[in-house]
Amino acid sequence: MFDTSGEPVLNAKGRQVHARQVLVQKLNKKWAQVKVPGCGWVKFRNTRPGLPDAKSFRVTYRAGKWHVAFAVIPDPVDAPGNGETVGIDRGVAITAALSDGRVLNCPHLSVKERAKLRKPQRRASRTGKGSLLCKAEHTEAARLKAKEANRCKDWCEKTSTMLARSFDTIRFEKLHIKHMTRSARGTVDEPGKQVSQKTGLNRAILAQGWGLLRQRTEDKAPGRVEDVPTAYTSLRCSDCHWIDKNSRKSQARFVCSNCGFTCNADLNASNNVAAGQGGNSRPRHSAGAGGMTRRSLRVSVNPSNAISP
Ligand SMILES: [Zn+2]
Fold first, then answer.
1. Where are the domains positioned within the chain?
2. pLDDT, tens digit, for every residue of 36-94?
3. Among this protein's residues, is 89 annotated catalytic?
4. Can you tell me which residues the record assigns to a coiled coil (predicted)?
């Protein structure tokens, strides 16, 4: 956000201005100015100590506010050198479960704020489409949504810095967020099932900032971030490596059907990620996703197929 002496020219698509040449001047402790092409000197609130040493900057207009962002490549965070490895299991109920037992949650809008957000959305639906009033209501809604996005971003920045500072190796499970958030709508001939439920889940997944957390951690700790394949991370016992879908008693509870190891399900998964286990092909002795009964069933039905212990 900044005071303008004539608004910057924006392109039609992204409503933003890029500039390759950076001319910045300090005005006082809080304010500085930058030369925007086609517009002249523009004052902006400097939120960082010192002037930005950037090669380019971008001016954007988002949710009723002007922003100027300088492209500065930050120095990577030094590894702590303690040899510690952390596994991170990302989920919807818990944003990030760490293998050291910590549970981190990305902040969202409160119930009160959500109710506040619905008001302008409702009002906008009653106004004429494209009218000035409609636009104003949408701006108000966008302002509140931007608040949530900003909180999520802030959380991702703080969490990734914390991870880069406190661990030598950071392991994430490999997620295909794009595949996971595919719509369930289907085609006209074959409409999908539970489309609105899937839409809600997709929204919840995208609101967690999974991708951003992984990306920012990599930026701050280059070469120290590893991806672990996801298969069976949530079904494998982190103690005896037994895989059984019956071990996952509920969303939060994990009780191993083989050794009785009891643990929070997310913590168990993050332990598997930390150990780098997940994608190893299913061991022969595991009960598999079908459950333990399968093995004994197969033995009785067809003895030639029995798996030797
Ligand atoms: Zn076990």
1. 16-70, 85-228, 245-305
2. 877 778 888 888 877 777 778 888 777 777 888 888 777 788 888 888 888 888 887 88
3. yes
4. none
